[in-house]
Specification:
215 residues; mainly alpha; Heme Oxygenase, Chain A; 8 helices
Length: 215
């Protein structure tokens, strides 16, 4: 089984649209407070994704690989600008961007953002794994918001509208960069990285769900 087949199998196994929280989202079963709490928690993950994108750019020498550095820097700047779009959604549902995150959210952010020791290829795999799932996730969230929670197309859905389409491009670009670097790479380490970010997203949702049950 090749690398990509194994990676896609991991993504299928950890599809967060099957998480109970997102299932309840799509069924219209979330309370206003749950949606607001989720928005505040996931804000931290949006920031972590921007940090991961910035880290990827920083790991490339602009003198030896100027085109790649420019491309990754542009991606990082895009992701940074998307934080404000998430804040528009958070404001629309009454959430707080500055809320102290759950421990599960902290763990997710650490997995997504990585650290200074995470190599470029591992960071690219993390980005691909996150972004490849975003189109379907974003479309599902937006449709649920419109159908059940009184959220109409506009600033409140702009983050989801954008990621439904843009992350198709982002994931494809990351896949091409990964493919160029796979020869001789430790594929199991990369797959472990992918599984880590997938589990981290699931864990964040566990934390949101648990907070709702404890309320």
């Amino acid at each position: 089984m090749d690398f990509w087949t194994r990676l896609e199998a991991l993504r299928a196994q950890r599809n967060v649209l099957e998480h109970p929280f997102y299932q309840r989202w799509s069924a219209g079963e979330l309370s206003k407070d749950e949606l607001a709490h989720y928005a505040g928690e996931y804000h931290h993950a949006v920031v972590a994704l921007a940090q991961a994108s910035s880290s990827a750019a920083e790991l490339v020498d602009p003198l030896t690989e100027p085109a790649l550095h420019r491309s990754l820097q542009a991606h990082a700047e895009e992701e940074q600008s998307h934080i404000a779009l998430w804040e528009d959604f958070t404001d629309a549902v009454g959430g707080q961007e500055a809320q102290t995150p759950n421990s599960q959210t902290v763990a997710c952010c650490e997995a997504w953002a990585g650290d200074t020791k995470r190599p470029l290829l591992d960071t690219l795999v993390a980005l691909y794994t996150i972004e490849a799932g975003q189109p379907a996730i974003s479309a599902t969230k937006r449709e649920g918001l419109k159908a059940h929670y009184g959220i109409q197309e506009g600033p409140a859905t702009a983050y989801f509208d954008l990621h439904e389409h843009l992350d198709v491009e982002h994931a494809q670009a990351a896949r091409e960069l990964i493919e160029e670097r796979l020869d001789g790479a430790d594929e199991q380490r990369l797959l472990d990285q992918a599984e880590r970010v997938l589990l981290a997203n699931w864990t964040l949702l566990d934390g949101v769900q648990m907070a709702a049950l404890a309320a």
